[in-house]
Design goal:
heterodimer; A: alpha/beta; D-Maltodextrin-Binding Protein, domain 2; 2 domains; 11-stranded mixed sheet; 15 helices; about 45% helix; B: mainly alpha; MetI-like fold; 21 helices
Chain lengths: ~325, ~500
Amino acid sequence: MCFKKFLYLVFFFILCGQTLWADNKLVIYTYDSFSSEWGPGPIIKEKFVRTCNCEIEFITTSNAATLLTKILLEKDKTEADIVIGLDQKSIWDAMETGLFSSPHVYDYGYFAFIYNDEKLLNPPKSFEELIEMENIKIITQDPRTSTPGFGLLTWIKYIYGNNSSKVWSQLNKNIITYTPGWSEAYGIFLSGNADLVLSYTTSPAYHMMYENTSKYKALIFSEGHYKQNEYALILENSNQQGLAKKFIEFIRTKDIQKEFALKNIMYPYEFENIKEQLPIEFTNVPVPDKTFLFEDKIISLNKEKWIDEWLNAVVE
Amino acid sequence: MQLLNNIAFFLRSSFPWLCISILVLAAIIPLLSTLNFYSYNFANQFSDYYLRITYFSLFQATLSSIISVILGIVLAHLLFKHRYIHGIYYLINSLGVVFVLPTILIVLGIVSIYGSLEFLSLYGLFGILIAHITLNIPLVSRILFQSLSDISSSEWMLAKHVNLDGLGLFKVVEWPIIKKNIPSLFLIVFFICFVSFIPVLVLGGGPKFSTLEVAIYQSIIFDFNFDKGLNLLFIQLAICLFLFVAIFSNFKSKNFILNENREFQLLHNYSFKYFFEYMVIFAVLILIFSPILIIIVNGFSMLFDVLIAPYFWKSLLTTFYISFFSGLLSIVLIYGSLLFINTKNKTGEIYLYALIIISPAIMSVGYYIFLNNYVPFKIANIYIVIFLNAVFTLPFAYNFLAPSFFRMIQEHSELSKSIGIVGLRKFMFVDWPRLKEPIVSAFCIASILSASDLVIISFFGTNSLSTLTQTIYRLMGSYRVEESQAVALLLLIYCFIYFIVSYKLVLKK
């Protein structure tokens, strides 16, 4: 009798183990804050499913920086049809693998330091001024483990070129710590334990839209700001090519694009065309005059070298 | 009937083998799987930087573990001495909570407490030490307290008869049992600190104060450079193995007077003459519990909003499943393994410690590769998460259970053998009554550690499979810091309730 029950139990477990096979299922790899309840994922899913008579499954990593690793571990066995959330740090490497067809930008942003204007009364107006400052607590992310952290690295590299090491060793005096990811850094900043945090120029829009406060502002630097593009890619091996292409087109439609502003707090790819549909708090955020970014290939070729350079500069 | 007996015999004799095999394979499989991506190239780019962080890791881990073990002993001794004071019982059980909460919560608490103090610079060696000490004193003192409760009344009585008091009493009665625990405790704390990740990254203040583990994590997870990552891991393993051998060959344990009765009470009721001791207890507890206080204070502002949010209840349920079943599996596995080890020979411990010192990053990646390439069928992610968490928490479950287990074996094995009681019946009538307290402690610790995990769940979790710990991170990742603090408070409350209910149900006190 007992044995029979045991068999049922085993059978039950095996059953649970099988994923339900669906004809029209799109598997999307993305990072947590995209697909979580508070990100743009759920609403995109809901709206797309209505148009396609299909299923969408999000498989997430905790961090955008680990998305490519997951695919590389699975190689041709991957279940993914689409990957959402790669940025310049890894896009070239991703394309080099030959696993993906061409990348599509769906949103972008500019790296910037955020401050609380009730606390920091003389905010620096340029990188130059920031570097010269004393007694300011900056919190940023480790460029080895975080995409914004790496963003700051490329930002400084773009402005200062061969002088970057010097700039880093000077800036480092004011950096209290490099956190593993964006979340820890921003959390420490919001709890009032740092004056500046590395984030995006659009971050203050979140506080205005959802918390009704305008005390958080982005420092706009005269040297210009480094741009980050976020990409969606279709896997070559996916057997849902048609559906995947439809999905990519779908997230670039105006209706969906605004979700990236509201939920991802980034500029939608179609920002200029959908401005009037967005809340004023978002469109009023100052846009830097000068923005730039390296070519993807240059980043891929120099990534390791730049990180070592930073490491040596801040370890001294 | 004969057949049933045979089956029972087979199950009984294969159970310890099964458990120990799972344990050994659990450490070896992921490592072997990662070799797929390894090109056996040892001559790898080891700049001075890696030498530097290796030294630093050794330094901070040694310092952290020495301080944690010493303060842990002091706290355990004092709490044990004054255990009849009202409320101490709950306090001891809450000690476990500090250790098992998600590390990031304790670390953020530490930032809030010490970060604003102008006269000290938190980030650097100081911050790392504070975090490691705060996290590990509770572990050490909780385990030691468990062991001290094993001292039998005849030992106390004997000590009393020869008029020992104070330090003498400590030296003769408590020290031998504490001493026996020190190598394991020192090693486990050392290993935890040596492979520390979040405390080191957040409180280290920069790559100057880092660990090999951070470098391994970076190489494997971010650069997909298995050559570098695994070479660094081999260095890490070599150092840890060396320490393991060095420490265990130098400590030999002694036997004690063995006795059943543990209800003898040395009266240490509340009295002014122990004022100094109360102050010491108080000081150490402030150090340990201050990050918890921060969680409580910060958690209130959005508590109500979170309580009415469906996502909270959903992830609470997932958290409960994972913690309960991981904890249970962990206990079963460790119990079976203990039956196998069953002697004072501690070489089996190395496999347990391997589960800590083989970096969590490599373990998770290794299992990921293994499940993707060598397992022909698909297993639902929740089972993987439960199983892996059970495996990862084994070293901690072991430390909570092993001292009492070995002592019980010394006391009972001859007797049990002579009356021919074996297997499940022996467990029910001999082991369980004697071991239920350490078992429930180990169960709670393994459960909540599983609930706090972020590495495994980030590899094997899906969007719909989300624990409270993950929810805290997701909220933080979406600018919702206050809301995340409320979830943190609720996770804390969950831990306490989990502990209290488990103890009440099992011990019926």
